[in-house]
Amino acid sequence: MFIHDFVHVEQPLSIVLDEFARSVDPWLGALVSTAWLSDQEIWVETGIRREDLTPPATVTVSLGNPRFRNDGVIVPISWAGGSARLFPEVEGDLEIAACGPRRTDLHLMGRYQLPVGIDRWTVEGSLVHRITISGIRRFLELLAARLEEPRLLLPAPTVTAEGASA
């Protein structure tokens, strides 16, 4: 199935690209997991089993070689589906492009596979599609929030046994 969604980042392209390049690992997988878990209770209320929605403990996001343009960059992005029946494998392009001097757009264009045995034109197929689209949107929102506020990208201070920050 085809997916396409976007969000804005209220930062110039140069800042967004610097922060993305500097801070991409390992938190992209955590953003994917958080995105899928954020609406989990809503989907469970529709009758979907929690274990069918829960992403793997560690989601590995793979990035390909970036393709540069005058107005931005396109980065191939993918993650595996894992063992949860309704957590999809996603493959696509993350476009990071200028949208004026002080705003950058993040577009995710790609595809995902419906789980084996689910037909797109059934109620279950429609629900899986909505779950995936919702997860993609939430992933982009979380990514934009981190790129807008670079201090969120810094690791938390380590607390020692005495309670002092290291």
Would you spell out the secondary-structure blueprint of this structure?
Layout: E1 2-9, H1 13-23, H2 27-38, H3 40-45, H4 50-53, E2 61-63, E3 67-69, E4 72-79, E5 90-98, E6 104-112, H5 123-148
Antiparallel strand pairs: 1-6, 2-4, 3-4, 4-5, 5-6
Helix pairs in contact: 2-5
How would you sum up this structure, described in words?
The protein is of the alpha+beta class and 166 residues long. It has five helices and six strands, in the order βααααβββββα. The protein has helices spanning 13-23, 27-38, 40-45, 50-53, 123-148, and strands at residues 2-9, 61-63, 67-69, 72-79, 90-98, 104-112. Strands 1, 2, 3, 4, 5 and 6 form a six-stranded antiparallel beta sheet that branches. Helix 2 packs across helix 5 (123-148). It is elongated and about 45 Å long. The chain starts with a strand and ends in an 18-residue tail after the last helix. The relative contact order is 0.22. Residues 153-161 have low confidence and may be disordered.
In short:
The chain has helices at 13-23, 27-38, 40-45, 50-53, 123-148, and strands spanning 2-9, 61-63, 67-69, 72-79, 90-98, 104-112. It has 166 residues and is of the alpha+beta class. Strands 1, 2, 3, 4, 5 and 6 form a 6-stranded antiparallel β-sheet that branches.
Q: What Rg, in angstroms, do the CA atoms define?
A: 17 Å
Spans of 5+ residues with little confidence (pLDDT < 50)?
A: 153-161
For the termini, the CA-CA separation is 47 Å
Specify the overall morphology.
elongated
Summarize the biggest pleated sheet: 6 strands, antiparallel
Give average pLDDT, whole number: 86
Structural class by helix and strand composition? alpha+beta
Number of H/I helices: 5
Report strand %: 15-25%
Series of H and E elements: EHHHHEEEEEH
> What is the number of E strands?
6
Question: In which range does the helix fraction lie?
Answer: 25-40%
